[in-house]
Amino acid sequence: MEQQQQQTPAHKAPSKKNNKESSKPKMNKFTKFFSEPQQPSLLNLFLKRLGYEKYVKNFQQQSIGMSELPYMEEKQLEAIGIPLGPRSRILTEARKSSFV
User: Fold this and answer.
1) Is pLDDT at 61 greater than 90 in this prediction?
2) Which of the residue ranges 4-18, 69-83, 86-100 would you say has the lowest mean pLDDT?
3) pTM assigned to the model
4) Does 47 have pLDDT greater than 80?
5) Which of 79 and 36 is assigned the larger pLDDT?
6) Three-state DSSP class for residue 58
7) What is the CB neighbour count within 10 angstroms for residue 89?
């Protein structure tokens, strides 16, 4: 009986878990290679056009994009750290912008 137990197949099929784990790095490399470079958001483009790209992080921290910007009030922009001059211009331009 001992001989029968020792005679296990020399080549075992890898478990499914190992296959999944080993394919993840390959998939990551594959998607990184074929994925398109990330495009700047409409808000980034809008603020850059106005010369206020340095405020992008203020908007990103609050998850504010071009969809939300035209509905914001001056007090709300002040609360996220946008100074008076840029704040007025950003709101005026956002409300008449074709980005939205």
Assistant:
1) yes
2) 4-18
3) 0.60
4) yes
5) 79
6) helix
7) 14
State what percent of residues in the chain have pLDDT above 90: 53
> Is the separation of the CB atoms in 64 and 43 below 8 Å?
yes
Structure tokens at 89: 């211009």
Distances (CA, A) of 60 to 16, 50, 65, 71, 99: 40, 17, 8, 16, 17
Judged on CB neighbours under 10 Å (0-12, 13-18, 19+), 46 is buried
Q: Which amino acid is at 100?
A: V
Question: Distance between CA 55 and CA 87 in Å, rounded?
Answer: 10
Instruction: For residues 58 and 81, give the distance between their C-alpha atoms in angstroms, rounded to a whole number.
Output: 7
| 81 and 58 Cβ atoms separated by less than 8 Å | yes
Q: What does the radius of gyration of the chain's CA atoms come to, in whole angstroms?
A: 27
- Taken as a whole, the chain contains a residue count of 100
Tokens of 84: 């008076």
